[in-house]
Amino acid sequence: MLGVPFVFLFISLGWPPGILSAEAKIAGQHDYHYAGTLNIEAETGSVKADWQITVFDPAETDITFFLRNTLSEIEVTGDDVKHAKTEKQPGPEGFWLVNVTLAPSPDDAAAKDRQIQISYSGVLIPEPMENRINAIEAGRVELNVDSFWFPIDNRFTRFLSADLTVYIGDGWQGVTTGEAIPIEGGFKIVNTDPRLDIAFSLSKSFHITQSDGFTIYDQRDQYEGTDRLVATANKCRGYLDERFGQTDPLPVAKLLITERDSSGYARENYIAFTDISETKPAPLMRFVCHEFAHYWSRGAKFDTVDNWINEAFAEYLGLMAVRDYLGQAAYDEMLASFAKQIADKDLPRIWKEGDTERTDYLVQYRKGPLVLAKLEEQIGEEAFLEFTGQYFIAENKSTEVLIETLANVSGAEQASVFVEMLGD
């Protein structure tokens, strides 16, 4: 994810509200199913939402959801809700904390899944957010978890499917990770695959095209650079699939091109780019490959120190693709630029055992990739890619697991050197 949204995230049709297949539940992939309605008044920024959240884990009794603190009239109900409390967390980035205590699930294999009803309303974004990723404006709506527009489990580790009816009026077009199905007065947003987020974009002026397996949703008045974006995306897809996608290749992608000059993000098959009309070949390739790389470079807990892994590996794989397609000189120039950006900065270390706090942007996006470049120089490209690929398929994602993986590939001595590099 490029840009500096408050949190990351770093996400088929047909089930009735609240119902998932038995196979999905047995697989343990879905913690929740969100079914609901969202009314949007684009001209005023007002929203009104009603959710029915199905909880699949029978052992779950206490859940805290985050909601944006600009919302009001929050109500929590449901036959399975034993107690609910809503309180505002202090601070400039404060949230509503919606604490829900559920009645215990009956000790019965046939017992039904429990449900929580949550409703609220208000002007979600009274003032434009700095990165412009989330917005409700006349003619444009773009929402994801960064604005806390929907109730999200505060552990940020729970996966959900969604079946959301959005009422916004006629004349709009939509894109999401799953399907955005036009209905009278709005859309059905249906995500059957388990994800951390419900991300979508609506527009009255999308220029929608298809090319080489990509669908492009362009918000700009002029569509300069689209051909270059598609060509670059093809190269990135080829580069990354060849190295990491033998059993799990990149999905068919939906590419959103915005009018922003910064802040992009990836939700697996749904990727939002900045205005790329004047972006030069090397930065464009790094940008596109970074976002595609997040298909594998993810899973480390994003609100902790370990988020450096998600971002630094995505960024460095973008640099490696630049080297592969555009040459060593372009790669060297980018590394030198990274080093120059942080040369006069008193930055904290990337990681040391016991660290928990998420580090800042320059540590994750600049210092981290520079350390990975040094590691690749020490162990060679082949070993670096083997190490990276093994980490990507690891069940648990953390810096400790990353170090163990490096030790398995290149030995304990090299892993020890790497720990020192992270701690500098």
Major β-sheet profile? 7 strands, mixed
Order of helices and strands: HEEEEEEEEEEEEEEEEEHEEEHHHHHHH
- Structural class, from secondary structure content? alpha+beta
Mean pLDDT: 90
Integer tally of domains: 3
Q: Report Rg.
A: 22 Å
Q: Architecture of the largest domain in CATH?
A: Sandwich
Explain what the structure shows.
The two termini are 25 Å apart. The N terminus is likely disordered. This protein is 30% helix and 28% strand. The protein folds into three domains: 163 residues, Sandwich (Immunoglobulin-like), CATH 2.60.40.1730; 86 residues, Zincin-like (2-Layer Sandwich), CATH 3.30.2010; 117 residues, Neutral Protease Domain 2 (Neutral Protease, domain 2), CATH 1.10.390.10. It has 424 residues and is of the alpha+beta class. The chain contains nine helices and 20 strands.
Which tags fit this structure?
424 residues, Immunoglobulin-like, disordered N terminus, Neutral Protease, domain 2, alpha+beta, Zincin-like, 3 domains, seven-stranded mixed β-sheet, 28% strand
What's this model, at a glance?
The chain has 424 residues and is an alpha+beta fold. The protein contains 9 helices and 20 strands.
Write the SSE topology:
Layout: H1 22-27, E1 32-41, E2 46-55, E3 62-68, E4 72-77, E5 81-88, E6 95-102, E7 114-123, E8 135-137, E9 140-143, E10 152-153, E11 160-167, E12 173-176, E13 179-183, E14 186-195, E15 200-203, E16 207-211, E17 214-218, H2 226-244, E18 254-257, E19 265-267, E20 270-273, H3 281-293, H4 307-326, H5 328-342, H6 361-379, H7 381-392, H8 399-410, H9 412-423
Parallel strand pairs: 1-11, 17-18, 18-20
Antiparallel strand pairs: 1-2, 2-7, 3-6, 3-10, 4-7, 5-6, 8-9, 9-15, 11-14, 12-15, 13-14, 16-17, 19-20
